[in-house]
Specification:
By secondary structure, the chain is α/β, with parallel strands linked by helices. The chain folds into 2 domains: 87 residues, Beta Barrel (Elongation Factor Tu (Ef-tu), domain 3), CATH 2.40.30; 158 residues, Rossmann fold, CATH 3.40.50. The chain contains 9 helices and 17 strands. Helix 5 runs parallel beside helix 6. It is globular. The two termini are 22 Å apart.
Length: 280
Amino acid sequence: MYEILSKKVLNEVTKMMVVAAPEIARVCKPGQFVMIRVNETGERFPLTIADFDREKGTITIVFQEVGKSTLLLGSLETGDMIEDFVGPLGKPSPTEKKYGTVVAIGGGCGSAIVYPVARAFKEAGNHLITINGARSMDLLLYRDEMETLSDEHYITTDDGTCGVHGFVTTVLSDLISQGRKIDLVFAVGPVPMMKFVSKTTEAQKIHTLVSLNSIMLDGTGMCGACRVHVGGQMKFACVDGPEFNGHEVDFDELMGRLNAYKEKEAISEKQWREKHGGAS
């Protein structure tokens, strides 16, 4: 059992929890994830580690309430226990190398995943440019943390309520058109966002990494739900990734897999909300 040490509501759909997990905190690296089972009858699902503190023995997770299992997790409070909290899993991000100029892009909840990776890129001596994107100002995450960390920091919102009125690719395209030398782009967010970030950098052959954490299920490579073609070869996001070369990912196939169980997921969520009076 793993105790929730603190809980914070970040916006209407996103919550943050700090969990006591000293054995994981001692060895985890940026880019890795944990498998969670809230209670004995709950399903297992993966969440990428948003932060860790080796001295305190804690792991920070940030998640959107998008279905039954995340609603169940979000209903827990400080002092409650999580049944299973397993990790670290997945390959860590390649952050130890000094690339030169790194652009780290977070879309929506993806900014929480980008943060520890961006911090590691900065600690390795890279010039760090960060781009935080969301549909609106209320949904922006980690803006202060990213700004403090970065050599250059940009914000974009789809509706123009904060920063640049546009998408993360708007700023990225501007940087490229200015002739800026970019050695690596790291992007995490909705699949369409990662697809178009990869398309934006492909012509200039800028090495681009994306995280396919959103398609993972059991986290061990056994279920096969996270399989996707990368560079023409079948890969499993959980054990071969979750990060891959964005120029090689078959994003159309990926989006198809993500939509495969939407109807059943919606039914499960509806039943949970009806049972709990719509509470979260």
